């Protein structure tokens, strides 16, 4: 075998034999996917309604920040965005002057 060691060839042969047999060495016989029977779909409206219910259920699990935390986070984000805009604008002006100085 070119490009592969004999050990890896034996391991690949064992894996392919296990796949053909439907088993793996550590896990045993493969089982059906959990919830495979739930693949039956309803109408688009039923799926949309279920999706919205799940979204609301997930949002109820969220630990929302208190007002003072939210104000702090908002200020930090605004300061960071202003800093990044100033940095990019400054670099833009610097490079523009450099290019104009070189190429006239």
UniProtKB/TrEMBL annotation:
Residues covered by region (Disordered): 1-27
> Could you tell me where this protein is found in the cell?
Cell membrane; Membrane
Q: Which keywords accompany this UniProt record?
A: Cell membrane, Membrane, Protein transport, Translocation, Transmembrane, Transmembrane helix, Transport
For this protein, the parts annotated as crossing the membrane are: 70-91
* Topology within the bilayer: Single-pass membrane protein
The biological process GO terms on file are: intracellular protein transmembrane transport; protein secretion; protein targeting; protein transport by the Sec complex
Residues annotated as coiled-coil are none
Question: What is a GO molecular function of this protein?
Answer: protein transmembrane transporter activity
Q: Which PROSITE patterns match?
A: SECE_SEC61G
- The answer to whether UniProt assigns keyword ATP-binding to this entry is no
**Sorted alphabetically, which InterPro entries does this protein's record hold?**
SecE_bac (IPR005807), SecE_sf (IPR038379), Translocase_SecE/Sec61-g (IPR001901)
Chief location of this protein? membrane
- Specify the domain of life of the species encoding this protein: Bacteria
This protein's GO cellular component annotations are:
plasma membrane
Give the protein's function: Essential subunit of the Sec protein translocation channel SecYEG. Clamps together the 2 halves of SecY. May contact the channel plug during translocation.
Give the family per the record: Belongs to the SecE/SEC61-gamma family.
Q: Which PANTHER family match?
A: PROTEIN TRANSLOCASE SUBUNIT SECE (PTHR33910)
The family database entries (NCBIfam families) matched by this protein are listed as: secE_bact
| Subunit and interaction comment | Component of the Sec protein translocase complex. Heterotrimer consisting of SecY, SecE and SecG subunits. The heterotrimers can form oligomers, although 1 heterotrimer is thought to be able to translocate proteins. Interacts with the ribosome. Interacts with SecDF, and other proteins may be involved. Interacts with SecA.
This chain belongs to the protein called: Protein translocase subunit SecE
Origin species: Nakamurella alba
């Amino acid at each position: 075998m070119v490009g592969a060691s004999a050990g890896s060839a034996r391991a690949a042969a064992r894996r392919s034999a296990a796949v053909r047999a439907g088993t793996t060495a550590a896990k045993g016989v493969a089982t059906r996917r959990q919830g495979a029977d739930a693949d039956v779909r309803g109408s688009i409206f039923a799926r949309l309604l279920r999706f919205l219910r799940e979204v609301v259920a997930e949002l109820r699990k969220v630990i929302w920040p208190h007002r003072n935390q939210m104000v702090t986070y908002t200020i930090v984000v605004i300061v960071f965005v202003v800093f990044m805009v100033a940095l990019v604008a400054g670099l833009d002006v610097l490079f523009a002057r450099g290019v104009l100085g070189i190429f006239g």
